[in-house]
Amino acid sequence: MNMDDATLDQWMLEAAQLVKDRNADAAELVYRRVLGVRPEHPVAHYQMGLVAFLRGDLHGARRWFERAIALAPGNDFLRNNYHTWLRHVRLPPTWIADTAEDLVNGRTVRRFMPAESDRHIFIIEVAGTCHLRCPSCPVGNFDQADRPKGLMRVELFRNIIDKISAETAAIPKPMIWLFNWGEPVLNPALPEMIRIARGAGFEVMISSSLSLKRDWDPIVAAEPEQFKISLSGFSQAVYGQSHVKGDIELVKENMRLLRQSIDRTGSRTRVWAGFHLYRHNLADHDRMATYCAELGFGFTAVPAAYQPLESVIQMMRHEVEGRDHDIVSKLLVHPVEFARLRGQFLDPELDCELRFNMTNINHDGSVALCCAVYDTRNMLGVSFLDRSFDEICNLKYQHDFCRECYESGSPCQPTHPELRSALSERISTAIDETQNAEKGSTELPLKIREIRRG
Ligand code: SF4
Ligand code: SF4
Question: CATH number, domain at 21?
């Protein structure tokens, strides 16, 4: 360390103490001295954000924090702290407008730090169809939708990526997800599409049931950043109830092949399994978690949800339809109870994250209102290539279904702590009920009991 570095470190320590003492003026003088010598010192920029925050200047603080992150893009500590701060002060990052005119609800709504990603997410459905029939998914439960099914063509995909690149040049690189209501691996052009998106500098995520035979090497070699495996059991008797038409032995075999393919190609793709928790599959949870650990894959369990949004809103008005009884009775929290709970904590003055931070493009290039809807009437009626990004955003704020959604309490907003604890309690009760029903036969896995507590 040379003399200059030692002096700078000393100044930084001195200024940090002044921030702790809430002496904004004195701290600013020292940080400006540091920046005079080292204008691109990311921590000094970050600390200047804290100084602005001490003075109550939220917008000034946000600009300083973002400059710090731009100067040190790999610094997760600064980024995570910034995101926590945004949640605390209820602001979005600067590249998301603070407010929007919610025309259909007749009010101005405030935006916030999105839970899913601070960057915009473009969902491009490269396969608008699936060979499975999961009863909690519209592919399995919403056959009344007059929805075109098919695979996206490469040329269309390339044009979409080019348009996204051109229209988002001034904001942090968006993320590209290649799935919504379909199985992306069904599209034989998937490896080429991943390469096109990655070649344009985007981070790519795919999600597959893995319940189909494929040569995984081309997909793995194309290196999507994330490969999610969506599943709901370890044995066929359990898995087959919620992943109808799926074959868990084929899934497990494919997981092994995926591991071998990653080892063979040296791919840096991060693979993780998303385990949908139901009442009927709690006992399979640990077995799949262990299997993933053996393969070096990540594992996350989340309570399964019934979809699409249209059906949940319908359920709130009427009884559950006969054919849905079975799957609804397997959920840890009934969809209507979940929606009503959310409704109690809805803030009508807040925007919906699915509306302002995601754009959902169907396999034919048309645009959906959001990723939660399925019915044709809830598409925006335009092609992504024919309208500007801003025009598409504006159309969302005029769509009637967002009014129904707000009335039902279903927009995607930050989870209120009381809502979180109410949901934990419901989940805990559901697990207890399952345990009592199975008393004497099966001891629930340890990790499930940990989830219940968490
Ligand atoms: S595998 Fe996925 S897309 Fe296919 S039916 Fe099941 S949940 Fe829907
Ligand atoms: S329909 Fe609901 S979830 Fe979808 S964008 Fe509108 S408010 Fe958000």
Answer: 1.25.40.10
pLDDT at residue 1, as a whole number? 47
Q: Is residue 52 part of a domain?
A: yes
DSSP-derived secondary structure for 341-355: HHHHT--TTB--HHH
Reported confidence tier of residue 444, pLDDT bands at 50, 70, 90: low
Q: Is the CB of 109 under 6 A from ligand 2?
A: no
Relative to the CA of 243, which ligand 1 atom is closest?
6
* φ, ψ for residue 13, nearest 5 deg: -65, -45
Atom of ligand 1 nearest to the CA of 211: 1
Residue 80 lies in domain? 3-89
Cα 10 to ligand 1 centroid, rounded to whole Å: 57
Which atom in ligand 1 lies closest to the alpha carbon of residue 246?
A: 1
Q: Using CA atoms, how far apart are residues 362 and 123, in angstroms rounded to an integer?
A: 8
Alpha carbon of 208 to ligand 2 centroid (Å): 25
- 276-326, pLDDT tens digit by residue? 999 999 999 999 999 999 999 999 999 999 999 999 999 998 877 777 889
Q: Answer whether 365 contacts ligand 2 (Cβ < 6 A).
A: no
For residue 440, is pLDDT > 90?
A: no
Q: Which ligand has the minimum distance to the alpha carbon of residue 355? A: 2
Answer whether 327 contacts ligand 2 (Cβ < 6 A). Answer: no
Q: Is 181 helix (H, G, I), strand (E, B) or coil?
A: coil
| Burial track 41-76 (b if 16+ CB lie within 10 A, e otherwise) | bbbbbbbbbbbbbbeeeeeebbebbbbbbebbeebe
